Structure formats: structure tokens, C-alpha cells
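Researcher: We're teaching a course module on how sequence relates to structure. For the next exercise, students receive a sequence and then see the predicted structure as C-alpha cells, so they can try to spot secondary structure elements on their own. Here is the exercise chain.
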Amino acid sequence: MTNPHTALTPRSRILAVDFGDARTGLAATDWTGSIVVPLPRIDSRDQQEVIRQVLELTAERETQAIVVGLPLTLDGTVGERAKATQQFIDKLRTQAACPVATIDESHTTDEAHERLKQGGMKAKKRKDHADSIAALVILERYRETLRPPR
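Model: And here is the predicted structure for the students to work with:
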């Protein structure tokens, strides 16, 4: 996990990205920075198009930081999937007007499916929403790192 901007707080306006080959989940805080909400996912295999849409959303929402889930392996190392995601992050950082952080996204998709299941959503529908709920989990995890120690 990297936190490139120490001035951020749990109340900052943050956009979370669950980057994928074909589907990219998104979640963000509301204008007050207090509520986390899932956003419609981006369905595209074109990495530059995904970046364009993320940046457009960042500007529209006056985002103060972007956090991207980094899919580390079970032992916490960088595997092939994380390398591809890191390339996306590097390109995003060169174009974003705000800091771009990363956080381990291990098991976020499983947690997303479980949350949707607990909410009564059928399996077929869960697939349509899982990417953005995974982004929501990424955002919740990141916000926890911004809280001062107790």
C-alpha cells in the first residue's frame, strides 16, 4: 500500500478503481467524503479509454485522490496480474491531476460477491455489480489507512 499524499483524510473525496482486462469497477466517496458509493463500471479492453473515463470522472467529481487495487499474490508478492495493473497505474499517474495510491485488493471480489449475496441478489445479477462493489471494498480499505492511529 502506498499513500502518496499525507494531507488526505478519511473525509477526502476519493475515487477507487478495480482495474480489469474487460471490466473496471469504480466506487467513490460522496461530495462530503463521508459516504462510499459504487459507480457504474467501465466495460472496455482499451486501457487508454479506461484511463480517459477515470480522469473524466475524477474531474467531474472533484476527486482529491485515486486509489487502485493492486492484485498481489497470496504471499503478498507482485505476480503477472499485478504487473499488468501496475502498468495501468503508471500511465494513470502520468495523466492524473491528483495523487494515485495503491492498496492490496486481495479477496475484494470474493467479499463483493458475499455482500451482494447477503443483500439477496441472485448470482447472475451479482456478476454485473461485483466489480464496482470490489472497488467499494478497495476504497473502504484505503480510507482505513488514512485514519489516525488510536
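Model: If you want an answer key for the exercise: The chain has one domain: 14-146. The longest strand covers residues 36-43.
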